[in-house]
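Researcher: Quick test of sequence recovery. Tokens follow.
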């Protein structure tokens, strides 16, 4: 089997990150002051009080106790969300109520699917920007609004929503799984810290997250440069469309009208060692026709800060080679 030399996702780890983590590993396991500095930095970014948790499971557990959710209650979320969110909900006995998406844009639409098998009520709605474009679903009255910032961490959080940011391996910013909750007010943040208790993220994870925080603008600027080069040099020849109007780049989608052509390019890139992929994460149990259509006709290309110019050129050249042969 041919090895993928240009993966679809790649953590943007820098020399500064490695130095920060190596220094942290020589010190005691936890550092409350460093954690407070990380929370303060993101608080200034978003204009909100921020509380950091060791992982998404711990963060969802705190929200469950904060809002009094019960096992069997459901939360709506996009099927394009990182799988960590669905897994975190299920770990606490909550029901992921998957939404459908528009087949052209990947933006959420309609009502949550699969609620018939849910023992409780719809208590929360995880909005997001899983395609790089901030979006809000039509949250029902009484449901808690949560904005998942994984793919757009520099965007602003809606006034009536809590913010969630998972600093994991498939996202633009790294933090060994640290998950941030941006509270709607200071009293709520204080309660979240109380619920977190002494189970703090490790010093090494905090050091990585803080190093990436300091580089966040440069890393996203680099991603924008990669996307701009794709947009300037790719020649679709009427076979696919290029993304328009994106503010945050965690992937670069090509939109096809022909499912066979999309599959053909995906297979060709794979044979040449490039990790292009049709659609998003593994589809959930309850998937709508919009998601199936979007997944079949949307090819994701690598787009990250660590993607060098030679690798970018290779991706572009291979797409053009396929166009010449097809």
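Model:
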């Amino acid at each position: 089997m041919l090895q993928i030399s240009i993966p679809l996702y790649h953590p943007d780890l820098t020399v500064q990150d490695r130095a920060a983590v190596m220094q942290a590993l020589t010190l005691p396991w936890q550092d409350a002051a460093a954690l407070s500095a990380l929370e303060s930095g993101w608080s200034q970014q978003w204009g909100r009080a921020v509380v950091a948790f060791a992982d998404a499971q711990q963060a969802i557990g705190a929200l469950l106790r904060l809002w009094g959710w019960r096992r069997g209650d459901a939360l709506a979320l996009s099927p394009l969300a990182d799988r960590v969110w669905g897994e975190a909900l299920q770990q606490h006995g909550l029901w992921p109520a998957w939404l459908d998406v528009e087949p052209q844009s990947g933006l959420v639409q309609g009502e949550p699917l699969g609620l018939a098998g849910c023992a409780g009520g719809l208590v929360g709605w995880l909005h997001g920007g899983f395609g790089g474009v901030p979006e809000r679903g039509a949250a029902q009255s009484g449901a808690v609004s949560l904005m998942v910032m994984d793919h757009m961490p520099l965007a602003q959080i809606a006034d009536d929503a809590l913010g969630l940011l998972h600093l994991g391996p498939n996202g633009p910013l790294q933090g060994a799984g640290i998950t941030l909750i941006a509270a709607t007010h200071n009293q709520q943040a204080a309660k979240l810290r109380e619920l977190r208790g002494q189970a703090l993220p490790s010093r090494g994870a905090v050091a990585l997250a803080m190093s990436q925080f300091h580089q966040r603008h440069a890393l996203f600027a680099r991603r924008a440069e990669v996307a701009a080069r794709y947009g300037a040099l790719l020649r679709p020849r009427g076979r696919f469309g290029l993304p328009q109007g994106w503010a945050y780049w965690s992937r670069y989608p090509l939109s096809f009208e022909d499912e066979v052509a999309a599959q053909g390019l995906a297979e060709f890139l794979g044979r040449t060692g490039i990790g292009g992929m049709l659609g998003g994460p593994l589809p959930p149990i309850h998937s709508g026709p919009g998601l199936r259509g979007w997944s079949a006709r949307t090819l994701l290309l690598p787009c990250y800060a660590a993607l060098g110019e030679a690798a970018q050129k290779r991706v572009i050249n291979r797409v053009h080679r396929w166009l010449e042969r097809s």
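The mean pLDDT is 92.
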